[in-house]
Amino acid sequence: MFPVFFRGVHGNATKSLFFLGHQVKLHIITNLADRTKLGRGLPVVDFDAYRLGVDDVADEKLDVLAKELKTAFTEVGFVYLKNNGISQQEVDAIMDISENFFLLPDKEKMPFRRGNYSEVNHGWVCAGSERLNPQRASDLKEAFNITTLNPNVKWPSNDVVPDFREKLLSFFQRCKDLSLRVLRVLELSLGVAPDVFLGKHSMVGEEQNGTTLRLLHYPPVRPESVKEEQVRCGEHSDFGTITMVFQGPGGGLQVLDRTGNYITAPTIPGTVLINIGDLMQRWTADVFVSAIHRVLLPPPGDMSTRQSIAFFLHPNDDALITCTDGSDKYPPVNALDYLNERFTHSYGKK
User: Are β-strands 78-82 and 44-46 bridged in parallel, bridged antiparallel, or unpaired?
Assistant: First the structure.
């Protein structure tokens, strides 16, 4: 049902896995110490001409950005954006607030657990709740989802985590603004009519849209508690339009390229890593590539934590996604139905 481009990889340590009905062969590397045959690096694009805060940009500069992003998203599916308008200082401040929340005892996080908010995908996701690769054990991570700017949603108070709600809502808006700029450039890159993408993302931050800002925390890995072939985050592709990722210094993210090799995606301070989601791949009739990625275990003896911040951009719930080239390569799909079906695979239910 969901497209997977990468059917196999070279090497000795491989195993057949199933991704939502598609069989793929993947390296079973669970440890960062094994970094052989990892392929070449991911592209870096300078977004300075259209960074946040720049409202008047020449068409020629937008055309350059459009060509660069189209190349990246057709060949790899991932790209780093530097000079994007979100400073490393801003990211570090959110990382600090995130860490303050995740260091709380689980009993203090329970009142904010995902599932306490009706149909809204908001709140804390405890460790072991997700399994993004159904053929592996549950992921060794926890998360906090922010999907709505509704002031009535329950948040940790300032007594529990100072400035948590205020800072995260502000950062959500910053990510929203940057992601919509990226969508405008992608419209230009494909030569489609203005608002083909942007018009279906008009409710980001409202309960009629599934866009999610996600704080991710990967606790120290204790070898005695790790199950066979368990990793911090199993092989998967993202669900929606695009994803923006701000990484902490821990490392571990890898991307499967079109040659079947894993590319290490290191932390590059001052950049945001952007990738294509499955809905965008459908939307563009496979012009843009939604690449499989994962987070491996740290080397033996490394007891450090890993942090990242991800912004998952989704269309409005009522959006009908059809191929931009007018073909019937993929049948029309409702954005909310698609998202809920993907949640079923990760959580066992919506």
Answer: parallel
Task: Tell me the whole-structure pTM to 2 decimals.
Answer: 0.88
Between CA 279 and CA 114 the distance in angstroms is 23
Structure tokens at 280: 């965008």
Query: Cα separation of 62 and 196, whole Å?
Result: 17
- The C-alpha atoms of residue 230 and residue 297 are separated, in whole angstroms, by 8
- The DSSP secondary structure of 60-86, one letter per residue, reads HHHHHHHHHHHHHHHHTSEEEEES-S-
Structure tokens at 335: 């954005």
Please give the Cα distance from 90 to 84 (Å, whole number).
12
DSSP, collapsed to helix, strand or coil, labels residue 234 as strand
pLDDT (tens digit per residue) in 169-204: 999 999 999 999 999 999 999 999 999 999 999 999
Q: Do residues 281 and 65 touch, judged by C-beta distance below 8 A? A: no
Q: Which residues touch 240 (CB under 8 Å, ≥6 apart)?
A: 210, 211, 277, 278, 279, 280, 312, 313, 314, 315, 339
Helix axes 88-102, 164-190, angle to 10 degrees: 130
